[in-house]
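Trying the structure run again after the queue cleared.
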Amino acid sequence: MKTLNIYLLTACFWVLTACGSQQNKSKGERASVTDTREEGSNETSSKQPKKLQVLPVQNIKTPKPLVKKSQKIIKTADVRFQVKNLSKSIAKIQAMIRKYQGYVSSAKQERQYNQILSNIVIRVESDKFEDLLDETLREGIYIDHKNVKAKDVTEEFVDIQTRLKTKRAVEKRYLEILEKAKTIEEILKVENQLRVIREEIEAREGRLKFLVDQINYSTIQMVIYQKTEAAEAPSPGFLSKMGKGFKAGWQGILSFIINLTYAWPSLLVIGGGAFFGIRYWRKKIARKV
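Done. Tokens:
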């Protein structure tokens, strides 16, 4: 009996030991799972993209292109920026234009819903283009955009010069032939050829002059605006309303006449039916009498 009790105690001891180790193992697994989840959440949060802050265009100094003396470059700029006071800024920009010996090619001012803006086209010598552009942009409190382009037209410029040289040589040759012409027919033929050659020369000279102007004087297209409170449009007066009423009435009459011309087949059928109906009704009454 004592031996049986010893066996029973030993079995209970082993069962309790096994349960304790199993509980410790499950706790360890839970702790490891929790740590893994926390690490995963930290990694996920670190991988989430940060919100980018939208910044206005910065007034970066415009670099001057490295141009060889033989190159022909046309430089243009297109900018739009906001100012505090439009009239004061325009006065300052005009002073800058005079300082760099440029000129205003065109200017237009208009009012929109909540802003006053001015469109200005400036022409300035090519070597002063970048300096004037950077100085005018310092007036802005917010730059919407700034686009600067440099177009190389050297190939076209040289091609036109070469073709002009050839055309002038041909013109000179035709003039020599014209001096030697004896009959009227020969003179007319040579003069006709001279006319064609001179038209081609004039066209190419015009294109060459345009390129020279664009190369020597760069162009800045500028839009300057000032934010304002929204202004209501003025209401029309009494006479203006009367004029609109008469105009609307006259348009109504014209529309009615036009609609009648479209409906003439229907009117013809209705009129014919009414005519024969009345005639039949009168004959019927006459018979009864």
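Residues 1-39 form one domain. Worth checking whether this holds up in the mutant runs.
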